[in-house]
Amino acid sequence: MNSKQLQYFLTTVHKGSIAGAARELDIAQPAISQQLASLEREMGAQLLSRTFSGVTLTPAGDLFLTHATRLMDDINNAKSELRELVGKTAGTVKVGMLPSIGNVLSMPLIAEVKQNHPKLKLEISTGPSYSVKGWLEGRQVDIALTYEQDVDPRFMTVSPVIRENLHLVMANQATSSEYSHLAGRESIPFWALSQFPLLSPGNKDALGKLIEHYEKATGVNLQHNLAYSGQLMTGLRQVMQGEGVMILPTSAIFHLEESGLVSTLKIVEPEMQRLVLAATNKTSPLNEAVLKMLKVIKQVVASEQALQHWRGSLAFTDQSEMKGVLASGSLMSS
């Protein structure tokens, strides 16, 4: 039994004849007769008495009419609720992110939304962490992908995404004699970073705050003497020209590493990491489109992490990652 058979049965009863149902549904009479006969065989009873003047319900048909009406009502209600749900997930979602995150996430996120979520429209803005924070506070974006160093529990609700490993990024060891002695190594202790001139943002930026935190925790002072524009792409050009090194996650440079333009060493002793968060403004109610986009973002992050484009551990399966991040903020469910 299917909804088509139920529809044909109810319309035939309502119109009093198969011919009337055929005109109502704009379907050939034999097609309706065939479906009704199939329905009766499945029910194991004759539901309609057929005469030249039309059809009438048999006792079995009269009983079945009650159930058929209820079933069609349930089907129509389900369709209506699903249409409403799909309608709620439609809409434009504005996402703000840092250039390092955008480098790994923007293109696959756009592709995923376009291919599998056509009712969603994605708008991406990239900028330094303090700009992304301001956009979220001013409701210029719906979702901000940022770092724990920039969490403000006064207006942010956050969900952990990935705890990323930070690396020393330098000119390719094979082409730069300055770094040739590091060839064959996979990691470098934090204290050894003090040997290299560092291109780093100021402590207004989340990364700058993190580097300063590790310097204080270890007692190691790094070389911050190089002029840095604050623009990621400009800094990476300087790195590739051998003008200095940077501390970055692989999300920012995986494409350059795969092309052999830069080399990376994981920073250890202590291991240098930072937590990426998806933040929303707690003063703005979340609609279905934003909730859906949050799930899509986590799905794409997991894919990029599996490809080793974004090295680290997924954090949205472990709420304990957030202990200590917010003393008085709330976490959205993952």
From TrEMBL:
PROSITE patterns: HTH_LYSR (PS50931). GO terms for cellular component: cytosol. It comes from the Bacteria. The keyword DNA-binding applies. GO terms for molecular function: DNA binding; DNA-binding transcription factor activity. Keywords: DNA-binding, Transcription, Transcription regulation. Residues 1-58 form the HTH lysR-type domain. InterPro entries: HTH-type_LysR_regulators (IPR050950), LysR_HTH_N (IPR000847), LysR_subst-bd (IPR005119), WH-like_DNA-bd_sf (IPR036388), WH_DNA-bd_sf (IPR036390). Belongs to the LysR transcriptional regulatory family. This is LysR family transcriptional regulator.
